[in-house]
Amino acid sequence: MHTTSLSVTEMVRGFSDYVNRVAYRGERFILLKGRKPVAELRPVPAGRVLGELEDVLRSLPALNAAEAADFAADIEEARTRLPREELRDPWQS
After folding, report:
1. What is the largest CA-CA distance in the chain?
2. Contact call for residues 30 and 5 (beta carbons, < 8 A)
3. What φ, ψ does residue 48 adopt, rounded to 5°?
4. Nearest in space to 35 (alpha carbons), one of 4, 67, 8
5. Would you place residue 49 in the very low, low, confident or very high pLDDT band (cuts 50, 70, 90)?
6. Average pLDDT of every residue of the chain
7. What distance in Å separates the CA atoms of residue 76 and residue 23, rounded to the nearest whole number?
């Protein structure tokens, strides 16, 4: 995605417009103060980061023994339905 540079003064004068462009168009802006980059205005990444996975998993309700067995059976059934593909080296041409 293209990043546009603009002065802090320009940003202040059109703040709402620039925020809308970031929010709705996904644009990025580097803010300059005296021709020197000082900040970046960009969309917040969607979703979660991998570091939050443990907390997300911990927040899920615990399964009882029967539910866990049913879940394991569902996973195994899904695996048998997947097409079998050989692993290949992604670096090999």
Report:
1. 66
2. yes
3. -125, 165
4. 8
5. confident
6. 91
7. 42
- Helix ranges restricted to H, the chain: 8-13, 15-25, 53-59, 65-81
Q: In angstroms, what is the C-alpha Rg of the chain?
A: 24
How many Å apart are CA 49 and CA 34, to the nearest integer? 35
Domain ranges within the chain, ordered by starting residue:
3-41
d(CA 62, CA 58): 9
Q: What is the pLDDT of residue 1?
A: 64
Alpha-carbon gap, residue 65 to 62, rounded angstroms: 10
Q: What is the pLDDT of residues 9-38, one digit of tens each?
A: 999 999 999 999 999 999 999 999 999 999
Buried b (16+ CB within 10 A) or exposed e, 5-23: eeeeeebeeeeeebeebbe
Contact by Cβ (8 Å): 39, 31: yes
